[in-house]
Specification:
With about 350 residues, the chain is of the alpha/beta class. It is built from eight helices and 15 strands. About 15% of the residues have low confidence.
């Protein structure tokens, strides 16, 4: 069957299968050649019939929903259009279970196409006589697909596409800090970002591979915040989840993080940049697994828009989320407890990473 062909859900005495439809795209005059098979799937002999072609009465279909509507259509209706006159093939009687191939050739002008687009194409089998108690013209089977037309003189705007280039990693900065007399150092659950940011690391290679390519960068602000925190100084928990900052050791990834940030700034300069929700949470999984209270909270959040960090420093232990119903273009961002001025990094104007 043609990849775009759709058999109706209604059960007919015969099944129709398309094996070829050429040309794949009609560019100008010529002929449309259709090949296929008809199989008697009923429990009785099927008398002589004819195979015909119809083009949808609505003309060119310009939406995906329109194509889906045609695919869901079951019986033959006026929407399938009239049969193309004098362009049919005869089908000899078929015993039960018998299969027979067919070929149809239709001059393109006879199809009545009125321009570029996708047209609903129906290939049907109808009874040719009134034998077996059924009248001539009774539909015995059909199949629908679409026919693409793109005349040589057609002028259409090319479809604009983009390639998304995500730069993501799991959050590693804990809601925990080590306070000294002159600094506040965030605590990371592990130091795996040092290797990822360094030469040959996953995140470094990801940035280097995307540089100079016509892509749209998709960045998690949390990852940039963590890199900035590493540059300014940070600690690493003795074990993941350890809540005692005094047992944390000094992080060694400041140079790797600085090199990665410099490479990222150079790579996104002049390019489109999309900021993901902070820490890229999987809201769908949280809604399914968090119970009714969390699901309700997520529904409310979806009505007020994304929550982003406003740049105000918080003193609570848990991550702080701010911003309701922000208009598009506001560059608010989320922040974790323990961050301090100099550790935050956000996405500014297009292609710019604010320092």
């Amino acid at each position: 069957m043609s990849p775009a062909a759709h058999a109706p859900s209604r059960r007919y005495p015969v099944s129709v299968e398309l094996t070829s439809l050429t040309p794949a795209v009609i560019r100008q005059g010529g002929e449309l050649r259709i090949s296929g098979r008809v199989t008697n799937t009923s429990g009785r002999r099927v008398g002589a019939a004819r195979i015909g072609v119809r083009i949808g009465a609505s003309g060119a279909i310009d939406t995906r929903g329109g194509l889906a509507t045609v695919a869901r259509r079951t019986p033959l209706t006026r929407a399938d259009g009239p049969e193309v006159a004098d362009r049919t093939a005869r089908l000899a009687p078929l015993p039960t279970g018998a299969e027979r191939g067919f070929r149809l050739t239709v001059p393109v002008p006879d199809l009545g196409l009125d321009g570029a687009g996708a047209y609903a194409l129906t290939v049907h089998v109808v009874r040719a006589d009134g034998a077996d108690g059924a009248g001539a013209g009774t539909v015995l089977g059909l199949i629908r697909t679409h026919l693409s037309a793109y005349p040589d003189a057609t002028r259409l705007e090319p479809l604009r596409t983009t390639v998304l280039w995500p730069v993501l990693d799991a959050p590693r900065m804990e809601a925990l800090t080590l306070r000294t007399q002159d600094s506040v150092l965030p605590v990371f659950r592990d130091d795996q970002l040092t290797a990822a940011f360094g030469p040959g690391g996953r995140l470094r290679r990801l940035v280097e591979m995307g540089k100079g390519r016509p892509v749209t960068w998709v960045l998690d602000p949390d990852l940039i915040v963590q890199a900035r925190a590493m540059v300014a100084g940070y600690r690493v928990a003795r074990t993941p989840g350890d809540t005692d900052p005094l047992r944390a050791t000094e992080g060694k990834g400041d140079e790797a993080a600085a090199g990665w940030l410099a490479a990222l700034r150079a790579a996104v300069r002049g390019r489109e940049v999309i900021a993901l929700p902070y820490a890229d949470p999987d809201l769908a999984s949280l809604a399914r697994g968090g119970g009714a209270p969390l699901a309700g909270l997520l529904r409310r959040a979806s009505r007020t828009g994304r929550a982003w960090w406003t740049g105000r420093w918080a003193s609570t232990r848990a991550p702080v989320w701010a911003g309701r119903g922000r208009r598009a273009g506001r560059r608010d961002r989320p922040v974790r407890q323990g961050a301090r001025p100099g550790h935050g990094a956000g996405l500014g104007r297009r292609g710019d990473l604010r320092r």
